[in-house]
Design brief:
The protein is of the alpha/beta class. It has one domain: Alpha-Beta Complex (Spore Coat Polysaccharide Biosynthesis Protein SpsA, Chain A). It contains five helices and 15 strands. The strands form four sheets. The chain has a five-stranded mixed sheet with strand order 5-4-1-6-13, sandwiched between helices. The chain has a four-stranded mixed sheet with strand order 7-15-9-10. Strand 2 and strand 3 form a beta hairpin.
Length: 299
């Protein structure tokens, strides 16, 4: 499967900003995250892997190169302005990773430039994906899953992964959860659900009230459909989401598609790993009644 993964990247420290891309103290974390989002994703998802193989009885063991049939023919484009980037600090990059200057005056326009460029190149790929610059794709079958789900559902659904972090000693936390009570003022907050039969059991999805994942993946047909829609409208939206990353991600898709995420119980089926600590911004809710009761029995 030939896949293009495009990500916007800006690092431009600014006093008083809450954005990690504008916080000088986060430079080491942002660089490590960018490495995982580029080189790390390429190595996890690509076709090359290695195996320790014995040369025979009483012979030495060597590390042998192999090709993985489920691996992707993956190209990664990092859309990043000169002088406001950490890409140069990554060292020499594999040929599959390319740095591209968006040539925009305002760095806040970089996410939309990346998403637009992705759709414009979609005819050359089986799937295209937009990803923020701090997301690690740990599931090597993520694209195969999404492609299969789109085939099963006909193309009107875009299946988004949950963006998660890990709280040390506690477990995963799903970022961008839906608000209690929903948002009936939003046209996409319909409560729609879908179920898919999977070999390990039914997987359930819901039409997300808060669709932001920092990531989307489209089949070629879906991407070409989105491109035609936005070209006809000269890339002028009827509404704008809360920020440039949100607008470049789910904002481009909401007018055309139903954005579906796994129900929280099934979040591990489609998820990406956020390389940050946003979980620290929010207090822990007081414990509710336990889901499962523990009963003691006497012999």
């Amino acid at each position: 499967m030939r896949v293009l993964l495009t990500m916007p990247h800006v690092f431009a420290p600014r006093d008083g900003s809450l954005y990690s891309s504008q916080t000088a103290e986060k430079r080491p974390r942002k660089l490590a995250a960018l490495r995982e989002a580029t080189i790390g994703n390429l190595l996890r998802l690509g076709q090359r892997h290695w195996i320790h193989a014995s040369l025979g009885l009483k012979q030495s063991v060597v590390t042998r190169a192999q090709e993985c049939s489920l691996g992707l023919d993956l190209t990664i484009h990092v859309i990043t302005p000169a002088g406001q980037t950490l890409v140069n600090d990554l060292g020499e990059l594999p040929e599959q990773i390319k740095r591209i200057d968006p040539e925009v005056a305002d760095p806040m326009q970089v996410p939309m430039a990346a998403s637009k460029r992705l759709l414009e190149q979609s005819a050359d790929y089986d799937m295209v994906a937009y990803s923020e610059d701090d997301l690690a794709i740990e599931d090597p079958e993520l694209f195969h899953k999404i492609n299969h789900l789109v085939e099963l559902s006909g193309g009107d659904y875009v299946f988004l992964p949950h963006r998660c972090e890990q709280i040390p000693g506690k477990g995963d936390v799903i970022l961008s959860g839906d608000p209690d009570g929903g948002r009936p003022d939003l046209f996409w907050d319909t409560g729609e659900r879908a179920e898919v039969n999977w070999p390990l059991g039914v997987r359930s999805f819901y039409r997300a009230t808060n669709p932001h994942s920092g990531f989307y993946a489209l089949t070629q047909h879906q991407a070409q459909r989105a491109l035609a829609y936005w070209q006809e409208r000269q890339w002028t939206p009827d509404f704008v989401l809360s920020g440039p990353l949100e607008q470049a991600g789910s904002g481009l898709l909401l007018p055309l598609f139903k954005l579906m995420k796994p129900i929280p119980e099934h979040y591990r089926f489609l998820m990406v790993r956020h390389q940050d600590e946003l979980w620290k911004r929010h207090r822990f809710e007081q414990a509710r009644a336990p889901i499962y009761e523990t009963r003691s029995t006497s012999a």
